[in-house]
Amino acid sequence: MIRTNLATRPFYNERGVALWLLGFFLVVVVASVFNATRVLQYSHDDTELGIQASRDEARAADLRRQAARVRTTVDPKQIAFASLEARQANDLIDRRTFSWTELFNRFETTLPDEVRITSVRPKIERGQFRLTISIVASNVDDINQLMDRLEKTGAFAHVGSTIDEHVTEEGQIQAVIDVEYVPESGHATGRGEGGNRK
Fold this sequence. Notes:
Elements: H1 14-73, H2 76-97, H3 100-110, E1 115-125, E2 128-137, H4 140-153, E3 156-157, E4 164-167, E5 173-181
Antiparallel strand pairs: 1-2, 2-5, 3-5, 4-5
């Protein structure tokens, strides 16, 4: 026997659908509020960055004007004079650091028996010590031996051919050589390679 009343109205789950629609609506509202706040924040940040960029451009233009003004007030002659004075001061400092004792100790260990040094003239060129050395030797081989020994010390560079060479009345050879000297205590900038000798 059938106990179900088929004439009654069928049951619909209206409450579940309503809850689902309400949840979806809340998600849409929250997403919309979030997007609106982000748009407002980005708009505000963009405005601030635009203002900062304008300030920076104005500051850069002002600094360029100041630099141009300073360049017009600087006298090139004063710069050249100051540069010359600085070079002279550096030369004086380099001369004070030049040690004659160190130099003659090096000569003592390198001089062949038949070679005598008659004069030494130091000169500073572009932060490097140049030495013009006058020597007297018995023969050319002694001069070449001296130049080889100077190069091997590592303290002398560009030991090239002699500048001047002639025979004295006593039959000895008088020569002048030019070398670059790199003292341990000095301010020379480099040593360079030794030159070829004639």
